[in-house]
Amino acid sequence: MKITLDIQDNRFDTFMDLIQTLDYVSINEEKSVPEWQQQEVSKRLELVDSGEMKTRSWDSAKKDLFKK
Question: Quick one: average pLDDT of 34-44?
Answer without folding.
Answer: 96
